Amino acid sequence: MEIKIGMAKTAKYANEYCGDTCDLAERPHGGISAIIADGQGNGLAAHHTSSWVVTKATQLIGDGARDGAVARAVHDYLYAMKDRKVSCTLTVISADLESETVVISRNSNCPTIVVTPEYESVYDDEVAPIGVHRHMKPRMYEVPFTPGMLVVSYTDGIAHAGRKHTGHDADFEKIMEIIRKDTAEDVDYIARSIMEYALFLDKEKASDDMTVVVLGITEDSPGAKIEELKAVYPF
Amino acid sequence: MEIKIGMAKTAKYANEYCGDTCDLAERPHGGISAIIADGQGNGLAAHHTSSWVVTKATQLIGDGARDGAVARAVHDYLYAMKDRKVSCTLTVISADLESETVVISRNSNCPTIVVTPEYESVYDDEVAPIGVHRHMKPRMYEVPFTPGMLVVSYTDGIAHAGRKHTGHDADFEKIMEIIRKDTAEDVDYIARSIMEYALFLDKEKASDDMTVVVLGITEDSPGAKIEELKAVYPF
């Protein structure tokens, strides 16, 4: 089978720095993790916060730490370094080959959505961001690999898109429709489509930093097993 | 402008573990680095070696260390941890927004190629891999950003493809042709094409682990500045 990950990120309109950070980390026992974080506020300070959080998370994942420990350690780090004054959301979506499951660790005000050919789940239990509360635990979920599975999450720039113009949030059902009508082959297209929907609601001027992550599990591609990475980084 | 990176990697035929590792790291002062490493031997031991090397490099880059220091520190780490007994190649290609240059750090037996609309350079000076010699320095090169620029490197599974069947290495001129006939927009296509050429020479059964990295500098895309990441991870 194949794990496919697509991510898209954009900064609040007219801001040089994006307060969201996203990254990937290869897991030493096999598999890959996608990490997204939204630092408190926006601009350079938020950029540094979310960068630190994601860099620390990728370092721990690369060293083999389990996801629950990663979220706790990154929280403790931010809590100590910023003297409990700065919050940050953190969502880690891991396709773990040892357990053959997708492990989701959420400290975010945005949902994580799982869509497979058999079922749909929306994980949106209330949970605090990291960095500000003494006692912090991530919300953890685990779902077995299924071909055709899609796991989607995003930051609140997506969830609240359009609020400035219409007074209400982005239509969650519309986001679900975008996910449902595509396949796990098209993770990058789905990420891009959700972002384009949010930008459309914000009249092409993002009201906040926006990040989308889409992870898919697909059947094998024919031919040699080729791992691929692609990045586009505008400046 | 935009930085685009495409990477492709495959394991030696019938090997479960790939001894090459590749990864990306966002630079805290802006820009992005691509890292490739080829661990001594192949299979699980080589996989662990190159994973450690790349994980350590991405950690240091994420913490803001300059590339020359990264190569030295990663060498010292491998030299200490493996008691100077295990070698690994390391190539770091960084598009650095602070200096607006591409910085290349090579400890590899394979060349790094720069092709722009104005000139072509092949950096293939002799340099030792990391991990085994007390005094190690990376070969460093720095070239200013130019729209249309392509920077390409690979591991020796590509350079030596076909040797098993024909007794001689892959045709370097053929690799240059693949690079020349495409544009910096198509980094992933170029990476994939070079790998497919090498697999063709090896009769679709890779004689060694193979990795290709292609970095391109392009003009702006229209619309919002959207950063994108995509990964395909077969298992």
UniProtKB/TrEMBL annotation, chains A, B:
It comes from the Bacteria. Pfam families: SpoIIE (PF07228). Residues 2-217 form the PPM-type phosphatase domain. InterPro entries: PPM-type-like_dom_sf, PPM-type_phosphatase-like_dom, Ptase_RsbX. This is Serine/threonine-protein phosphatase.
